[in-house]
């Protein structure tokens, strides 16, 4: 159930980012948005898994101070996941890395807002 909620949240957040940004496009249709949401989630999870050892090392090495910049790192990972999903699917187009970074910030804010509500 938690996985479906995360998928729905990612899909909704990407829909909002798609509507707000002119240089990011998801092909119209619910099916395309669901596919892109799932692909983004898998890319984000995979990158997080690959970067986990670095995260642990930085947390220990900075005596826990790294947790204060962690939200920024998560936005960067989200931008990388968006660019990776863009390369893997023709249903998503993210024209620039700056757009991916802004879109990732929007996705993070929308996700945070959804978590506050539910």
Structure description:
The protein is mainly alpha-helical. The protein has one domain. Helix content is 77%, strand content 5%. The chain is built from four helices and two strands. It has a two-stranded antiparallel ribbon. Helix 1 crosses helix 2, helix 1 packs across helix 4 and helix 2 runs antiparallel to helix 3. The longest helix has 32 residues. It is globular, with a radius of gyration of 14 Å.
The strand line-up of the biggest sheet is 1-2
Which regions are unreliable across 5 or more consecutive residues at pLDDT < 50?
A: none
Total count of domains: 1
Number of strands: 2
Overall radius of gyration: 14 Å
Largest sheet: 2 strands, antiparallel
The 3D shape can be described as globular
Share of helical residues:
over 70%
Average pLDDT confidence is: 91
Judged by helices, strands and strand pairing, the structural class is: mainly alpha
Order of secondary-structure elements: HEHHEH
End-to-end distance, in Å? Answer: 14 Å
Share of β-strand residues: 5-15%
Number of helices: 4
